[in-house]
Design a protein that fits this description.
This protein is of the alpha/beta class and 126 residues long. 36% of the residues lie in helices and 30% in strands. The protein has a single domain, classed as STAS domain (Transcription Regulator spoIIAA, 2-Layer Sandwich), CATH 3.30.750.24. α1 runs parallel beside α2.
């Protein structure tokens, strides 16, 4: 499948996120809108289905996010914990404003790597 917004091969597209794979196995999850109780479960299911296929390096691109609830932040921590047990890692890219401040104050940035943009997160895997 081809992701219409980015014109790259895509695993899944919905209104709130789409996924694709880059650089020999790095799963990219691009989020749109809000990451809250209404969207987090669907996103978690999609990511877990990809992890079950063997993807353990994940970039969550947050530049299209508006609001992130505590449920959304918690889901990122759970994902990182699961991936760490499998030798993998999740990296957040493009998170801005209050969301980044909450992550740093928690201090969840000790658990989850945060990058200013997608390219920096992608480069960190090379």
């Amino acid at each position: 499948m081809l992701c219409l917004s980015s014109r790259v091969p895509c695993c899944d597209c919905t209104n709130s996120f789409h996924t694709w794979v880059v650089d020999d196995g790095v799963l990219v999850v691009m989020l749109h809108g809000n990451l809250d109780a209404g969207t987090t479960a669907d996103i978690e299911r999609q990511i877990q289905s990809q992890v079950a296929l063997g993807y353990t390096k994940i970039i969550v691109d947050c530049k299209g996010l508006g609001f992130v609830s505590s449920i959304g932040i918690g889901a990122q921590v759970v994902l990182q914990t699961r991936l760490h047990k499998k030798g993998g890692v999740v990296k957040l890219a493009g998170a801005q404003g209050v969301d980044v401040e909450v992550i740093r104050l928690a201090p969840l940035d000790k658990v989850i790597d945060i990058y200013g943009d997608f390219d920096a997160a992608r480069q960190s895997f090379r």
